[in-house]
Amino acid sequence: MAMADFFILSASVPEEYSKWLKLYNSWVNRDPFAHPLYCSLFVNDSTEAKCAVLSSDYGKVLYPFLLRNISSEEYAINIVPELYDLMSPYGYGGAYIISVTDKVKLYELFTGKFEEWATNERVVSEVIKFHLFDEDILAYSGQKDNTMDNIVVDLLQDADVIWTQFDYKVRKNVNKAKRSGLTFLTDTSGKYLDSFLNIYYSTLDRRSAKENYYFNTDFFRKIIDKMHDYFVFFHVLKEDKIISSELCLTSNRYIYSYLGGTSADYFDLRPNDFLKHHIILWGKENNKTKFVIGGGNQKDDTLFKYKKSFAPNGVYKFYVGTRIYDPNLYKLLIESKHEVLLKNHGIEWTPKEGFVPEYRT
Hints:
Blueprint: E1 4-10, H1 14-25, H2 36-40, E2 47-56, E3 59-69, E4 84-87, E5 96-100, H3 103-120, E6 123-129, E7 143-154, H4 159-165, H5 168-179, E8 182-187, H6 193-206, H7 217-226, E9 231-238, E10 241-250, E11 254-262, H8 271-285, E12 290-294, H9 302-308, E13 315-324, H10 327-345
Parallel strand pairs: 4-6, 11-12
Antiparallel strand pairs: 1-2, 2-3, 3-4, 3-5, 6-13, 7-12, 7-13, 8-9, 9-10, 10-11
Helix pairs in contact: 5-8
């Protein structure tokens, strides 16, 4: 039998945070979404940042997740004490392969160990927004649905090839931006955070974005202070004024478009097309292999089509994984929420179709 060491680390415990970080730093790719600081950004009174680790003869796995306590919810109080569910942090996730000698056996071993832990800890359900590249993560034993697609630029291609693959309107817009005197600035220190935030928040206001996208200044300060090698701010300037800005997260191989926006007063100069073009050039200069532009808010919406205009052949399927560890408790939570909302608030509630976990809709 293969030697195996399986354990769970908590980012809130300093010694365990350090151990998590050491394991993370031993990984060649070091995806930013698995960094303990990144996962800690989403902690609150009912949510902990955790990481499952498996070290075995078949390889090593790092699975970061948010463990959420359901027990304080009104509909769960009278069921049983200490119920949990888990999800990946905002962005991408899954069980990352740190090293491997046998991927199939590594998957089987990790899945068995993690399911045993989840059952013992009274975890009811799980939701994962999967990392895009299958070679970097383990297979999944739960349900996996292709909810939408993402756009990825292959940075191993020559810059001229990438340029010719842009839609004509993108090339036209980049050239217009150049003629308008726009310039590009790379910021690896967060020096221009205030300018970024002004543009980012105004963009959210313009789009009537959900409240959970309004990350506060402390959120960005923690990234700047604790994730030195895993972020870059990119800015476009008109003379000395930043008019478009984007925060990208980076691994040793990939660039991820993360958060950003453009000043509405300068739309006609096409700064966002100019920005994406120069991020691609920066990625090639810094030996990155892929630029993940992301997807839309809904399948094939205008935002997705805009991103696709930079890489018409770069469509990757984006999957969401769901798993119910305890079907009986899962059903009980749904029934309880229906009863509690009707009895205490006069609300006739039914779960949103397709949403998991249903009791959180």
